[in-house]
Every structure is written in structure tokens, then in C-alpha cells.
């Protein structure tokens, strides 16, 4: 049976080769065609942000072609970058993100090292538990946390609600579990011989971590840092719930609450603000794309 | 040099108190390990686990949080029509968005994988942009694109004779818009995950399939999909959790309107608990996310454990 079919197929073989390469060429053309369509779909909002940010309010309210700028102007950028309020949002966001990244790395790197290398009672369960906490969304916790901080304020007199530094306590709950999880993955991929050699040479656990694990797993640390930064920069729910005064707001909430006044939308400034708010993650992504993607895929493929 | 000087000392000490020093070392190692994980444990215990149980407690109190009312918050919710609307909308939102994200991500990943390797980096970089922009910022751009009077989409569609679409004004269109934005944000994530998975499928399998005369559909169905099953499952479950618990997009785009027709659990809980200052009722609403999250989490855990055992 099989020989029969092969015999039959043999004469048509030559024709098939030609058609196959023609198929390939067509597949390639179609791939590019659809990729261009998807790229348009994916890039329209950011490009439209940029287009609108170059328009004056007069041009926006005149119903001209929205996809084109007839009289480009930088007035929106100038207005925002000279407004103390907007610079305050930017500053708050930057401070919060930098502190959160530092706190996250200080907590998650030693924990990941201990969980991946220093096996102790319950360490495997704990590693799974860390991953589970990553799956708990912030939308489940914001109400009890809000009440908790209100109660703490009543009991101790330490006012945490409506202070930007409350975010330094809240954001690590979003960043630490994932960073620990991907660092466990990176540390687990380091060959055991390396730290055994270090222990034989008389290195303490701390030295093994700082002299060997951190340098070797440096790409992982960069990926985790980028993740922690982008999460804390983009977080919207916690600052919306916990901060209200304009001098305590971070970027995303600040733009939405201060630039949208009632029904009046100053779209030129809103889009400029949104673009400036999106800029730090985009710049980091442009320069460190490979680390960014490594961190993204590590969560599911490693560990 | 130091080594030479130390070695006899240490050897002597070890032979003298072999048992107790070993014991000591073990204890020291576990102490160090415990101290290293302590901040993590404290963080999770006080800011994740405690609030989760505190939510359960809050849900049993009355609005002023002074009286225990048992399950009457839940009874109240069950009698409200809006609650069932929110349940329905959350499920529609999460399932539709995740399915489209997964399918689109799969298709795009294939197209990127198809083109020569040299150009892949550039395309991949461009197509991941929606995932990189903070969702709150990009949703503002969508809100502007959907603007009732200056919508750029309606301007473009008017050339094709399609009348102005009430993107966020009409219940059905608002639901469509919210899901569309969610797909826009999430599809690139699927694309990246699937692309990584596609790269790990051995080329020989495709060659073998081609020799056996498989067409493109059979190659996808019998080679690609089985090889990618794990990653598809875990990405979908993960995305299901994130989408089900979504807040930013709905809040900014429609804030739950028109007439609560786009509220999902998170935005409704915010509306009741924070804006309406009924913390117990808000906590009860957000607790309804737990069952579906738990189911997804159990499946993810099973998958991870299975892979852990394999390696």
C-alpha cells in the first residue's frame, strides 16, 4: 500500500517543489500584509496620542481631519512641563517607583536565594505560595487594605491614607511575589557546582549570594527590576483609592483627576500628559527590550 | 596562605566536635535562610493574607461597621438586579476578551514566526508596544478616539457611509469598546508567549510532517498545538485571572456606565466601597471574584507541579 502511494506521488514531485516555493512566497507576502494591519491596530492609539498632543485646543475643536496636524504647536508640552502640579505628579511617580524597585529587590533577591538554594523545612511549599500570592489581584485587596490603614490611622495616629508614601507599602505586594518567582527560576538555573565550590572555599551564604549568584543571574535581576518599575509606574487602582490631594498624586491618577475637570476635557493636554506618562516605560523598553521580554516570558516558562 | 594556616585548626575542631558543629551549621543555615525569607513572609502575611481574611470579616458587618449582620450583605446583593448584571458582564467581558486575545495572539505569533528571522525583532518590538504603555494612559487615548463628538473613528467611518457610532454611549457598544481595548492591551502578551513557545518547537517535527504530506492546517493542529499546549493553558489561565479582575480600562473608559451596563466586579466594588463608602458591601462584591480566581489558580498550580515533576 505505502509503496503504491509513493510511486504515485513521485511524478508529481517536481511540480510540487515549484508550488511549494511559490506557496512560501505567498505565505510571506500574506504574513507581511497581516502584520502591517495588526501593527496599524496596535499603534493607532499611541500615534493618535502624539498627533493630538501637537494640536492647539482651537484646532481640536475645529472639526478638521483628526488624523493630521495642520498647525503643529508645542504649547501643550510647554504648558505641562512648566506646571508645578504636573511636575509634582512626575516627581511623585519617579520617587515611588525608585523606592519600590529598591524595596522589591532587597526583599525578593535574598528570599529567592534562600528558597532556591538553602532548602529548609517548607521551602518548596513557600515557593508555590509566593506564586499563588502573585495570582491574587489588587482589586480583591484594596477595600480591606483601605479599611486596615484607616484603622491603623485611628489607633496609632500615623496618617497613611492620602500620603504618597503609603504606596511604598502597597506596591511591593504587587511586585515582590513575581520578582521572587522569576529570581527563583534564574537562581535554580545556576549550576550547583558553582556554589558548592564557593562553600568549599569558605564563603558564607551571604558571600555566595553577593559574589556569585547576583553577578551570574544579573540578566534576571535586570528583568525583575524592569518588571517592578513598570508595575509601580503603571499602577492605577491603589493611588486612586489611597491618595486624593493633588500634591500626593502619582502620574496616572494625577492626569485623570486634574486634567479632566467636570465635563471639560482639555484633550491636547490630556494626550500630552498620557504620552509623557507612557514615556519612561517606553524608553526603558526601547533600550532593554530583550530583558523586558525575558522577564515577561520567565514567569510562565521558568520554575 | 591563610588557607594553610586555617586548615589544621578547622580539621581539629571538626574531629573534636563533629556532631555538634554539623548540628550548628545546619541550624545556622536554616536560621540564615529564615532571616532571608522573613521580609517576604511578613509582607505576604500582613499585606496579602491578612487583608484577604479581613475582607471576609468586613463582609459580615453592617454599613457603619459596628454590628455583625452575618450573610445579609450577600442576601442584599442577591436581591439586587445590578448584581446579576455585574456577574453576567464580568463573565462576558473576561471570556470574550481572553478568547480573542488568545486567538489574535496565536495568529500574530504565527505571522511573526513566518517572516525571516532578521526582521522578527523589529516587528516583535513594534507589536508589543500596547503591553508596555501603562493601561491607564493608553485607555485615555482610546477614550479620545471614542469621543462622542470628535471621535476619529467616526470621522473615518463617515467616509464609508457608516453613521456615528455611540462607542461609549450605548450599552452594547460600550461593552464592545471595553472588550476591544482589553484585547488591544492583552493580545501582545499572548503574542510574545506564543512566539517563545513556537521557537521551542523542533524544526524536525515540521519537516517530518511535511514529508508525510501534512497541509498547513494539519501542521498546526497535530504539531504546533500539542507542543504548545502547556504554554497556551498557562497563559490563558493567567490572562483569565488578570482580565476578570480588571479595573483600569473599564473605570477610565466608561466608569461602569451607561446605567451600570459595563460594570465588572472590580469597578462596581470600587463604586460601592470607596465612592459610596459602604465598605462591607464593597468587600462582599469583590469577594465574588474569589471562586473563579481559585479555579484558575488550581489549574495553574497543577500545571506547574506537573512540569516541576517532569524536570
Describe this structure in words.
The complex is a heterodimer of chains A (303) and B (311). Chain A is mostly helical and 303 residues long. Chain A has one domain: MetI-like (MetI-like fold, Orthogonal Bundle). Chain A has 15 helices and 2 strands. Chain A has a two-stranded antiparallel ribbon. In chain A, helix 4 (84-117) packs across helix 11 (218-234), helix 5 (123-135) packs across helix 8 (172-188) and helix 13 packs antiparallel against helix 14. With 311 residues, chain B is mainly alpha-helical. Chain B folds into 2 domains: 18-58; 77-310, MetI-like fold, CATH 1.10.3720.10. In chain B, 79% of the residues lie in helices and 0% in strands. Chain B is built from 15 helices and no strands. The longest helix of chain B is centred in the N-terminal third of the chain and has 41 residues, at 18-58. Residues 1-8 of chain B have low confidence and may be disordered. At the A-B interface, helix 1, helix 4, helix 5, helix 6 and helix 8 of A face helix 2, helix 4, helix 5, helix 6 and helix 7 of B.
Amino acid at each position: 500500500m505505502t509503496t503504491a502511494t509513493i510511486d504515485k506521488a513521485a511524478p508529481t514531485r517536481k511540480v510540487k517543489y515549484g508550488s511549494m516555493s511559490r506557496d512560501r512566497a505567498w505565505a510571506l507576502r500574506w504574513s507581511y500584509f497581516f502584520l502591517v494591519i495588526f501593527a496599524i491596530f496596535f499603534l493607532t492609539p499611541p500615534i493618535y496620542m502624539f498627533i493630538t498632543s501637537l494640536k492647539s485646543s482651537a484646532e481640536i475643536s475645529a472639526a478638521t481631519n483628526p488624523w493630521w496636524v495642520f498647525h503643529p504647536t508645542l504649547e501643550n508640552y510647554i504648558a505641562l512641563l512648566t506646571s508645578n502640579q504636573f511636575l509634582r505628579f512626575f516627581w511623585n511617580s519617579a520617587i515611588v517607583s525608585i523606592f519600590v524597585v529598591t524595596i522589591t529587590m532587597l526583599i525578593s533577591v535574598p528570599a529567592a536565594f534562600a528558597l532556591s538554594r538553602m532548602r529548609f523545612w517548607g521551602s518548596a511549599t513557600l515557593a508555590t505560595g509566593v506564586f499563588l500570592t502573585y495570582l491574587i489581584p489588587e482589586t480583591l485587596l484594596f477595600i480591606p487594605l483601605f479599611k486596615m490603614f484607616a484603622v491603623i490611622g485611628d489607633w496609632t495616629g500615623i496618617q497613611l491614607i492620602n500620603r504618597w508614601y503609603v504606596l511604598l507599602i502597597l506596591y511591593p505586594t504587587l511586585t515582590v511575589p513575581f520578582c521572587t518567582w522569576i529570581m527563583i527560576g534564574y537562581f535554580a538555573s545556576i549550576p550547583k557546582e558553582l556554589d558548592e565550590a564557593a562553600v568549599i572555599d569558605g564563603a558564607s551564604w551571604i558571600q555566595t549570594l553577593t559574589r556569585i549568584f547576583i553577578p551570574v543571574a544579573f540578566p534576571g535581576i535586570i528583568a525583575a527590576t524592569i518588571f517592578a518599575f513598570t508595575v509601580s509606574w503603571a499602577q492605577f487602582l491603589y493611588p486612586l483609592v489611597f491618595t486624593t490631594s493633588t500634591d500626593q498624586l502619582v502620574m496616572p491618577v494625577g492626569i485623570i483627576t486634574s486634567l479632566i475637570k467636570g465635563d471639560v476635557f482639555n484633550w491636547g493636554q490630556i494626550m500630552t500628559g498620557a504620552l509623557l506618562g507612557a514615556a519612561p516605560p517606553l524608553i526603558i523598553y526601547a533600550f532593554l527590550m530583550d530583558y523586558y521580554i525575558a522577564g515577561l516570558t520567565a514567569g510562565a516558562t521558568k520554575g | 596562605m591563610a588557607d594553610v594556616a586555617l586548615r589544621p585548626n578547622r580539621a581539629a575542631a571538626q574531629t573534636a566536635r563533629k556532631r555538634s558543629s554539623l548540628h550548628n551549621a545546619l541550624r545556622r543555615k536554616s536560621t540564615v535562610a529564615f532571616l532571608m525569607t522573613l521580609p517576604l513572609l511578613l509582607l505576604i502575611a500582613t499585606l496579602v493574607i491578612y487583608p484577604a481574611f479581613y475582607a471576609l470579616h468586613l463582609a459580615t458587618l453592617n454599613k457603619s461597621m459596628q454590628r455583625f449582620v452575618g450573610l445579609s450583605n450577600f442576601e442584599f446583593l442577591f436581591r439586587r438586579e445590578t448584581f446579576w448584571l455585574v456577574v453576567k458582564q464580568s463573565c462576558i467581558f473576561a471570556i470574550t476578551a481572553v478568547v480573542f486575545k488568545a486567538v489574535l495572539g496565536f495568529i500574530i505569533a504565527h505571522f511573526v514566526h513566518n517572516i525571516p528571522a532578521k526582521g522578527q525583532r523589529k516587528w516583535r518590538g513594534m507589536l508589543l508596544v500596547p503591553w508596555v504603555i501603562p493601561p491607564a494612559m493608553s485607555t485615555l487615548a482610546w477614550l479620545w478616539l471614542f469621543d462622542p463628538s470628535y471621535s476619529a473613528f467616526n470621522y473615518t467611518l463617515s467616509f464609508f457611509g457608516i453613521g456615528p457610532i455611540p462607542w461609549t454611549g450605548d450599552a452594547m457598544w460600550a461593552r464592545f469598546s471595553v472588550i476591544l481595548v482589553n484585547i488591544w492591551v492583552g493580545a501582545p502578551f499572548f503574542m510574545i508567549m506564543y512566539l517563545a513557545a513556537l521557537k521551542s518547537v523542533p524544526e524536525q517535527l515540521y519537516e517530518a510532517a511535511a514529508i508525510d504530506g501534512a497541509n498547513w492546517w494539519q501542521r498546526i493542529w497535530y504539531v504546533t498545538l500539542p507542543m504548545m499546549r502547556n504554554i497556551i493553558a498557562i497563559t490563558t489561565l493567567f490572562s483569565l485571572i488578570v482580565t476578570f479582575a480588571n479595573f483600569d480600562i473599564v473605570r477610565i473608559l466608561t466608569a461602569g456606565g451607561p446605567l451600570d451596563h459595563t460594570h465588572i466586579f472590580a469597578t462596581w466594588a470600587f463604586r460601592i466601597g470607596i465612592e459610596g463608602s459602604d465598605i462591607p458591601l464593597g468587600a462582599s462584591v469583590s469577594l465574588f471574584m474569589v471562586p473563579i480566581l481559585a479555579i484558575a489558580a488550581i489549574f495553574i498550580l497543577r500545571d506547574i507541579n506537573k512540569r516541576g515533576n517532569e524536570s
